[in-house]
Amino acid sequence: MDFEEKTINRKEIFKGHIFTVAVDDVELPNGLGQSKRELIFHNGGVGVLAITPEDKIILVKQYRKAIEATSIEIPAGKLEVGEAGGEAAAALRELEEETGYTSPKLTLLHDFYSAIGFCNERLRLYMADNLVKVENPRPQDEDEVIELMEVTLAEALDLIASGEICDAKTIMAIQHLQIIRK
């Protein structure tokens, strides 16, 4: 069966600094007619499962306007324009800006899409388990207010179980660590 939906027309609704919203008219496969698809196009992002020399996971606590709540997450951020193909460098930038650490080596854990039903945001999830403190780290983004937490794997799993960690990339990273440590 042919699953491809062919775009007949695309109407851009909004173009912002982070994403673009469009509505596509599509031809459905196998002569099933036409439909509309509301889509979000995003440059993508990176996240880092950062593990200190003391075997603690570094988490970032910050307010997330989209959910009107404080969230606990791994260090992460969006790709800036022109960073496509340089995701590891972007991950190291975010790690340093948010935590004051860097790492001589990143391990790619997962390369995935966050919400493929309507968004093309692609995330690269890395692990840095050989952190080095940066003497003069890059400054945090001016509009970012964060608090760092260092927790054990068991404490992180408890935060997931209690619902305090509800961010998908963070849950994936922590559960990945749980699997490889068994």
UniProtKB/TrEMBL annotation:
<dbReference type="Pfam" id="PF00293">
    <property type="entry name" value="NUDIX"/>
</dbReference>
<dbReference type="GO" id="GO:0016787">
    <property type="term" value="F:hydrolase activity"/>
</dbReference>
<dbReference type="GO" id="GO:0019693">
    <property type="term" value="P:ribose phosphate metabolic process"/>
</dbReference>
<dbReference type="InterPro" id="IPR015797">
    <property type="entry name" value="NUDIX_hydrolase-like_dom_sf"/>
</dbReference>
<keyword id="KW-0378">Hydrolase</keyword>
<dbReference type="GO" id="GO:0005829">
    <property type="term" value="C:cytosol"/>
</dbReference>
<feature type="domain" description="Nudix hydrolase">
    <location>
        <begin position="41"/>
        <end position="173"/>
    </location>
</feature>
<dbReference type="GO" id="GO:0006753">
    <property type="term" value="P:nucleoside phosphate metabolic process"/>
</dbReference>
<dbReference type="InterPro" id="IPR000086">
    <property type="entry name" value="NUDIX_hydrolase_dom"/>
</dbReference>
<protein>
    <submittedName>
        <fullName>NTP pyrophosphohydrolase including oxidative damage repair enzymes</fullName>
    </submittedName>
</protein>
